[in-house]
């Protein structure tokens, strides 16, 4: 009995100690519990009832009150509830890079009166931005960019008198830019402490209010690019003497620059491209801080190239292409040593004095001077090349050979890096071959991480890319851990916080920037709860030890068995398919046949050149005749483009799931003797791309194009809605749509396809792959793949059907070109200049306008604004029905040539291009690395 009393007293003492040692205010713990009760993927360190005393990851406290909630990059899921108002002492809230956080921002967030920093970058929040945020008077940093916020910019933000950073970019905000008015309502013009207005990539309309700018402001970055603003740039902007970066490109602005524009002596980067400016080319003489100027794709006119192009001392880049400039370009002037590029493509330059190649890059392609004999081959008459590849080189070591998912760091250590996209919104250089820029960026990143005591071994930059839609420049950033092969939660959220809150300061040539972090799935070294009872821990350790001993013998046996099975599977991943050696069939594949190498060698006449019907980066396609007499197309992978064995097996299993008349059928496969081959049904009339280009000789009238679109749409709708689980194709394009004997469309090439399982809640987070020109910009930026990514690609295909133009041609993007000329108030929507003349020459194509409108809905910037493929099918059926045709009838049974159908020899604008595909299977795809 005495022993029992002692045990009870000991328990009471321990309980008392636990209560005394608790350091978290009960109100904060209760509020935090309510806020996060429905969240998924919470940090493993969140154990116990004492966040402050137990050092929960992402939580910082002062005097028992939670003051900082920093949880960026942890792949959290759920919603931000009204319980956030319970954390009344909060001064920092950062939930960035958690796309699983969705829903609306509760208005109760306005009760956090001590909040100084609010960062929700790259989440999935939607709905209006709450007016109540305007009551957070102490707020200095507000970053709501890269979400799905809609509605107007709240006027109440004008009450944030201490705000320094205001970023609302990459949302769906609309309406005018709010400024204060005579009724006492606030506006953005009252933000006199703000240095950053980042409002690009929204849907803002109206004019730029003159009242928006005044001489008391401290603005450094004004970014309103990619909106729908009209009118002129107000002269009041010249009052902001602190301005360094200005972006009003990709709007509908007109007129010219204000006369006092040259007063902006600190202006470094100026972006005004893709507007309707129609004045004389502005005189920027004396603006000696300018480094980067882009005035392209307007109607600026000048009879001479202005002298400021050569006289500005810091200028690296002048992009003046696609304007109305004419006359002579004088190279005799002394040009700055900093000058890297002058781009005058698509103007009317007639002469060069003296006629020599300068020591900087000069581009005069599509000017009259480049049409002269012997001139077109000069370097300045050629279309600019793509950005050269770059990847941080090893630091005087040999890259390590790493296991799956691990990457060799610049210091040649295998580890799991934290990754994301580092994006410059105003890059001040154009010489991408000069690696010193990248090295400076790498060093400043490393210095910042080390200064903040983050356990970082090294950083790597790769995949430089300039987005033609936004003109932003981006790099893939890999941050490698030190001392161990992976980061713990604290390491990830610290790195993410330094980037989301702009604590990292890049070199001037890369500023301003944003970071978009990826989900990290390799956590290690997670701390335990410090408030755990020691006796419980000892007991657990003892129990676990006993279990370990008991399980050891069974574990050894299981490991040996698993190792043997793995070895067998690695040698042949198909061992579990119960292959029938006699018939060559695999019953689990619903008829997909297992061919031997010798069989396919025989069917293709020893893979002879005469049987070759297509080729590309993947290898070659051969026509074969099976013993039954059936024609097949055999896709034989080249050695350098082979997939892993498991990936090859996965693709075969995926292809065997789908059976639809508008999908190319898989007949079988071969996996032996180091070969990977897929055997498909033979599709006689090649690709849609071949027919549109004139290469196949098949006449594609308007009706046939409609039915091609309908067939391809039906095939895609089947993949999205009837396949179980749904399948995202990921590489829809004209070279992946084949035409059979009746010109019925069949979707082909599932090499990049992805299954959408229930656990992925509508999207697959995956490395970006696809074909440039067809690639969904939202998928590219977020790495979240959805069925709507296929819808975007299909919209580009629809525009290709009506224009017969490639998606990207001579640097011009078909989606943007259609947007530029389209006017729904005019005949054929003013698309005469861009439509394929062969379909409008004879009669007016019925339903073309509705077809184009549907295509433009498919290529909306945000996936939520696009229709589903089922809706696309229904609308195309309606278009065909209203044209008096039967959407369910077979296409024409003959393949007329251009000459037979039209009676004339049609010279197609793309007839001389070098297409890699010449047969029945799609050409190679181009994938961003």
From TrEMBL:
Nucleotide-binding in keyword set: yes
Chain segments carrying region Disordered: 909-929
Record's GO cellular component terms: membrane
CDD domains linked: STKc_IRAK (cd14066)
EC annotation from Swiss-Prot or TrEMBL: 2.7.11.1
Topology term for the membrane: Single-pass type I membrane protein
Transmembrane stretches, start-end: 536-559
The keyword Glycoprotein appears for this protein: yes
PANTHER family membership: LEUCINE-RICH REPEAT RECEPTOR PROTEIN KINASE HPCA1, RECEPTOR-LIKE PROTEIN 55
Key words of the record: ATP-binding, Glycoprotein, Kinase, Leucine-rich repeat, Membrane, Nucleotide-binding, Receptor, Repeat, Serine/threonine-protein kinase, Signal, Transferase, Transmembrane, Transmembrane helix
Database matches in InterPro entries: Kinase-like_dom_sf (IPR011009), Leu-rich_rpt (IPR001611), LRR_dom_sf (IPR032675), Prot_kinase_dom (IPR000719), Protein_kinase_ATP_BS (IPR017441), Ser/Thr_kinase_AS (IPR008271)
Binding site residues for ATP: 635
Protein name: non-specific serine/threonine protein kinase
């Amino acid at each position: 009995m005495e022993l029992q009393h002692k045990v009870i007293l000991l328990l009471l003492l321990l309980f008392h100690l636990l209560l005394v040692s608790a350091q978290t205010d009960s109100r904060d713990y209760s509020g935090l519990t309510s806020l996060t009760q429905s969240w998924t993927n919470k940090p493993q360190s969140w154990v116990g009832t004492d966040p402050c005393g137990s050092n929960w990851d992402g939580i910082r406290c002062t005097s028992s009150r939670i003051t900082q909630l920093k949880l960026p990059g942890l792949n959290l899921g759920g919603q931000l509830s009204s319980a956030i108002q319970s954390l009344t002492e909060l001064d920092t809230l950062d939930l960035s890079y958690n796309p699983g956080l969705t829903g609306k921002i509760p208005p109760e967030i306005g009760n956090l009166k001590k909040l100084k920093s609010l960062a929700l970058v790259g989440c999935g929040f939607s709905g209006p931005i709450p007016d109540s945020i305007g009551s957070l008077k102490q707020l200095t940093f507000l970053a709501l960019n890269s979400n799905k916020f809609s509605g107007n910019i709240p006027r109440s933000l004008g009450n944030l008198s201490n705000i320094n950073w205001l970023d609302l970019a990459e949302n769906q905000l609309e309406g005018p830019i709010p400024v204060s008015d005579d009724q006492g309502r606030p506006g953005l013009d009252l933000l006199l402490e703000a240095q950053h207005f980042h409002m690009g990539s929204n849907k803002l309309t109206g004019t730029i209010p003159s009242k928006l700018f005044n001489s008391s402001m401290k603005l450094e970055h004004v970014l309103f690019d990619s909106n729908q603003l009209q009118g002129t740039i107000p002269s009041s902007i010249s009052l902001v003497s602190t301005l360094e970066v200005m972006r009003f490109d990709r709007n509908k602005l007109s007129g010219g620059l204000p006369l006092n524009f040259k007063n902006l002596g600190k202006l470094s980067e100026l972006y005004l491209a893709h507007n309707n400016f129609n004045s004389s080319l502005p005189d920027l003489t004396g603006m000696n801080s300018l480094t980067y100027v882009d005035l392209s794709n307007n109607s600026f006119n000048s009879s001479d190239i202005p002298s400021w192009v050569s006289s500005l001392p810091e200028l690296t880049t002048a992009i003046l292409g696609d304007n109305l400039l004419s006359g002579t370009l004088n190279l005799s002037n002394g040009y700055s040593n900093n000058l890297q590029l002058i781009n005058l493509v698509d103007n009317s330059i007639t002469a060069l004095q003296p006629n020599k190649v300068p020591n900087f890059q000069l581009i005069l392609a599509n000017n009259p001077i480049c049409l002269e004999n012997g001139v077109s081959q000069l370097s300045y008459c050629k279309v600019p090349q793509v950005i050269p590849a770059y990847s941080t080189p090893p630091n005087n070591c040999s890259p390590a050979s790493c296991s799956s998912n691990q990457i060799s760091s610049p210091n040649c250590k295998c580890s799991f890096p934290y990754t994301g996209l580092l994006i410059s919104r105003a890059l001040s250089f154009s010489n991408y071959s000069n690696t010193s820029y990248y090295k400076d960026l790498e060093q400043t990143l490393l210095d910042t991480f080390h200064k903040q005591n983050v356990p970082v071994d090294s950083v790597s930059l790769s995949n430089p890319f300039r987005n033609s839609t936004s003109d932003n420049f981006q790099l893939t950033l890999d941050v490698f851990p030190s001392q161990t092969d992976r980061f713990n939660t604290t390491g990830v959220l610290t790195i993410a916080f330094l980037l989301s809150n702009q604590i990292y300061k890049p070199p001037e040539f890369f500023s301003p920037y944003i970071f978009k972090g990826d989900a990290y799935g390799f956590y290690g070294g997670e701390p335990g709860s410090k408030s755990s009872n020691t006796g419980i821990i000892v007991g657990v350790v003892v129990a676990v030890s006993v279990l370990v001993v008991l399980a050891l013998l069974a574990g050894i046996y299981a490991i040996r068995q698993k190792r043997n099975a793995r070895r067998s599977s690695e040698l042949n991943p198909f061992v579990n398919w119960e292959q029938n050696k006699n018939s060559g069939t695999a019953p689990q594949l619903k008829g997909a046949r297992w061919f031997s190498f010798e069989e396919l060698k025989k069917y293709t006449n020893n893979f002879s050149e005469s049987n070759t019907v297509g080729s590309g980066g993947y290898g070659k396609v051969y026509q074969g005749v099976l013993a039954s007499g059936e024609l097949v197309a055999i896709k034989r992978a080249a050695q350098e483009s082979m997939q892993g064995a498991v990936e090859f097996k996965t693709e075969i299993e995926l292809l065997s799931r789908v059976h639809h008349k508008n999908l190319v059928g898989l007949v079988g496969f071969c996996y032996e003797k180091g070969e990977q081959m897929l055997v498909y049904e033979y599709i006689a009339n090649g690709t849609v791309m071949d027919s549109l280009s004139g290469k196949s000789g098949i006449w594609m009238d308007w009706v046939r194009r409609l039915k091609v679109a309908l067939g391809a749409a039906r095939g895609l709708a089947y993949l999205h809605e009837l396949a179980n689980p749904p399948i995202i194709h990921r590489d829809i394009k004209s070279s992946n749509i084949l035409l059979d004997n009746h010109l019925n469309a069949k979707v082909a090439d599932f090499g990049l396809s992805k299954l959408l399982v229930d656990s992925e809640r509508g999207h697959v987070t995956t490395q970006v792959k696809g074909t440039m020109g067809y690639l969904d910009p939202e998928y590219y930026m977020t790495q979240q793949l959805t069925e709507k990514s296929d819808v975007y690609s299909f919209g580009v295909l629809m525009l290709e059907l009506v224009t017969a133009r490639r998606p990207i041609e001579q640097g011009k993007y078909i989606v943007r070109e259609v947007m530029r000329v389209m006017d729904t108030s005019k005949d054929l929507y003013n698309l005469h200049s861009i439509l394929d003349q062969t379909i409008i020459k004879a009669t007016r194509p019925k339903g073309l306008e509705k077809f184009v409108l549907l295509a433009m809905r498919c290529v909306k910037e945000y996936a939520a604004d696009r229709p589903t493929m089922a809706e696309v099918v229904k609308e195309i059926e309606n278009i065909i029905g209203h044209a008096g045709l039967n959407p369910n009838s077979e296409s024409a049974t003959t393949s007329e040539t251009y000459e037979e159908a039209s009676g004339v020899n049609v010279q197609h604008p793309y007839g001389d291009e070098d297409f890699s595909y010449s047969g029945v299977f799609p050409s190679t795809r181009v994938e961003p690395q």
